[in-house]
Amino acid sequence: MEIITKKYPYNNYQDNERTVCSLKEIEKRKIVEHNDLITSVAKMDKTPLKIFELAVSCIDTENLPKDNTIYLSKEELFTFFKVDDSNKHSRFKEAIEKMQKTAYFEIKEVKGKGYKMTSIVPIPTVSWTDYDDKVMIRFNQDIMPYLIELKEKFTQYALSDIMELNSKYSIILYKWLSMNYNQYEHYSAKGGRREEQVEAYRNPSISIQELRTMTDTIKTYKKFSMFEIRVLKESLAEINAHTHFKVSYEKVKAGRSIDSIVFHIEKKRMADDNSYKLGDKDYQADKKQKSRNEADLLKQAMESKYTRLLSEN
């Protein structure tokens, strides 16, 4: 069964070519991607990966971009990457060239009795001038099905979280953790899974082989000690410091070797974020009790007032 529609109606596109993504809305901007893209192998370093994530955040699935094209500004890109040195324009050019020449996704999808492998250069066309602030980004039409019309098996996460991550491994791991935690929140609220299945989403397990494949480290950090430092410890330090998650992990052995990793994900309670309350059973119970108490007090006040009026008459 097809998870997402592979073709989409071009008559849904609007003439929004002049639209520029504004980083003033960074705190509320979300990224939505299909899970197959999140578990794919990103054959690129952090800079093209972050440019791709920023560009995806500008896609409005209710108002699809004409010709798969969105617009950013150079200043927004520099702000996103916190670049303010005199070489920023040449560095931007180098990043774009690298993204178009060497950056691609290897997407693995279940098809029939096996897998279908697809390599996609996500952004083949980028256009800008030396006298204008605007940057045109055109997505590959083959990547679009993983970014729009997502009916199921998709993940949403905050662009502001991605902005603060400075390692390719941090970004990849954060997206995978978000994918699992989103499912935990969904099934906790909607049901449809046994309790142990729901808890498994909050404490997801992944084999070392799968984790190496996803992070493209099959041939690097061959000693587990180095792999653990670069891919696990450093990434989780960034994720814990800069995102909505607090994550720990434990190593699972098979014989003498480390076979898999179990992550334990908690969502931080942000001072300005009440979204966690939707799935917080204690919070909901307290809220209901508070409502009942307020109702009882109101009832008592009304009864007292009614009794007083009767006595006066």
CATH topology of the largest domain: Arc Repressor Mutant, subunit A
Averaged pLDDT, please? 82
Assign the CATH architecture of the largest domain: Orthogonal Bundle
Q: What is the 3D form?
A: globular
> Number of DSSP helices?
10
Radius of gyration: 24 Å
Order of helices and strands, N to C? Answer: EHEHEHHEEEEEHHHEHHEEH
User: How far is the first residue's CA from the last residue's CA?
Assistant: 75 Å
Structural class: alpha+beta
Give the SSE map:
Elements: E1 30-34, H1 35-38, E2 41-43, H2 46-56, E3 69-73, H3 74-80, H4 88-102, E4 104-111, E5 114-120, E6 125-128, E7 134-138, E8 154-158, H5 159-163, H6 168-190, H7 195-202, E9 205-207, H8 208-214, H9 224-242, E10 245-254, E11 257-267, H10 281-312
Antiparallel strand pairs: 1-8, 2-4, 3-7, 4-5, 6-7, 9-11, 10-11
Helix pairs in contact: 6-7, 6-9
What does this structure look like?
This protein is α+β, with helices and mostly antiparallel strands. It folds into two domains: 1-163, Winged helix-like DNA-binding domain superfamily/Winged helix DNA-binding domain (Arc Repressor Mutant, subunit A), CATH 1.10.10.10; 167-275, Winged helix-like DNA-binding domain superfamily/Winged helix DNA-binding domain (Arc Repressor Mutant, subunit A). The protein is built from ten helices and eleven strands. It has helices spanning 35-38, 46-56, 74-80, 88-102, 159-163, 168-190, 195-202, 208-214, 224-242, 281-312, and strands at residues 30-34, 41-43, 69-73, 104-111, 114-120, 125-128, 134-138, 154-158, 205-207, 245-254, 257-267. The strands form four sheets. Strands 2-4-5 form a three-stranded antiparallel β-sheet. Helix 6 runs antiparallel to helix 7 and helix 6 packs across helix 9. The radius of gyration is 24 Å and the shape is globular.
